[in-house]
Design brief:
Elements lengths: L7 E6 L10 H10 L2 E7 L3 H13 L3 E5 L11 H10 L5 E10 L7 H18 L3 E6 L2 H11 L9 E3 L6 H9 L3 E4 L11 H6 L5 E3 L21 H12 L3 H16 L3
Parallel strand pairs: 1-2, 2-3, 3-4, 4-5, 5-6, 6-7, 7-8
Bound molecules: nickel (II) ion (NI).
Nickel (II) ion binds next to loops.
Length: 263
Amino acid sequence: MNSSKISIIDTHAHLDGEEFDSDRDAVIARAAEAGIGRIITCGTSVEASEKAIALAEKYPAVYAAVGIHPQEIAGVKKTEISRIATLAKHPRVVAIGEMGLDFHRSVVYKDEQIKGLKWQLELAGELQLPVILHNRQATNEMIEILSGWVQKATADSPGVIHCFQENADNARIFLNMGFYLAFGGYIGYPKSQMAEVIKIVPQDRLVVETDCPYLPPQKYRGQRNEPAYIKLTVEKMAEIRGTNIETMAKITSENAERLFKLK
Ligand code: NI
């Protein structure tokens, strides 16, 4: 396979993480070398969102998403959402997120998570930007909240369910609401059951992501993940869909361009 022929978009990275402090330039250079032409780096707090924008200003391949992650939402004030609203107007910002619900690691702040999610969804609707959603063990609440919101979302697409690990029935519910589904390196883990889901997603709703530095592909498990490794995910997805890596790269890149209006 000739990497000069493929162009992949990593739709979800956390390049601001301290894990990249010592070699960020090299990480981004390796991504370019491997055919990862564009990377969306996602904020998880006001501070991380500011860093995401700074990275998008520094590196032409990097775009930013701004938002507050459910694990950072405890005690959040509406003034912080206002700050996100201001940051979102930056020309390199393509989405609001990472936002969502995570009842796996924390149910203590359930009400605050729901409030923070609703504030950010409202903001995305006002700004007509797609959302990047984190959903962990909160599917019923997530579906209920989103179904009331999607009408106000952007005309093109409301956004993407990041790190999709639900069953096919839930995939259909999110797809029917207009969402794209993003898959990462975990689709190649031996116990992954994502093949059955990936097969039923319409071609124009599939995108790929690393969620780096987290969730490395099987080959790099236990190590730091980085955008260059996304090729393994595209390769796995191509295998599941019965196509080749070039076609899968093209499809997922066109989808990401459309979703985040990268052109
Ligand atoms: Ni993430």
